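ok so I'm stuck.
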Amino acid sequence: MFPQKSQISPKVDPKTYPLGEQNERATNDPAKALVALSHSPVERRLYASMLLASNGDSNDGQLFTVRSLIELTGIQSLSTIRRGLEGLVSKFSVEREGRTHADGPRDQGVAYRVFPPEEVIARRNENGFVTYGKGIATSGRSFERVIQRVAENRNLSRREAQVALCCVEGLTNAGIGLRLMVTEQTVKFHLRHIFIKFGVKRRAELISRLLL
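replied:
not stuck anymore, here's the structure
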C-alpha cells in the first residue's frame, strides 16, 4: 500500500511562521508584524525574547549576551544563537556592542541591544534596507494591514506567507513563481495549504479575507 498523505491541520504549530513562540501573542501592531515577516524562525525567537525582556524599550540599558540568550530562549546551540544574532544585526533589529578578544572566549565583551519594531523600520530606512522582504513589493498602510493579518495566522509557513501576500498584489501563479523563483506547480501546492489554513476555497475569498 502507498503511504497516506498527512492531513493539513489548521491548528497552531509552534514551529511554524510567524508568531508561534509562547512569549509572543497576536498583535494589532503592523510594525511588529512587518518586522516578524523579515526574520527567520530563529531570528524571530531571539528577537521576541529580547524584546519581551527589555519591555520593548531600547533605552532601558539592557544588553544581552549569547550566554544569557541560552537561558532566555531555551536554545542550547551556541552556533544557532550566533547565526541568529548575525542575521538580526544585518537586518538592523539588534545592535552589537563591545568587541571579541583574541585571547579570550569568543563572546567575551560582546553584547546586543534590541530595538522595538518602529525603531527597526526607521533604522532600516536610514540605511537603505528594504523593509518589505522577498516577495513583498507593495507598501502603504492598507498593505500593512494585510501583512498584519497574514502574520496573525500562526500556522502559515514563511513561504506560504509570501505567496499569500503576492496573491493580494494580484500576481498570477506564474507571476508568483517568477518573483519567488519557484515553479508554478510549487505555487499551487502552497496555495492549497493557504486556502485550508484560512478556511477559504478560492483565491478571491483569500484576497477578500485579507483586505476586508
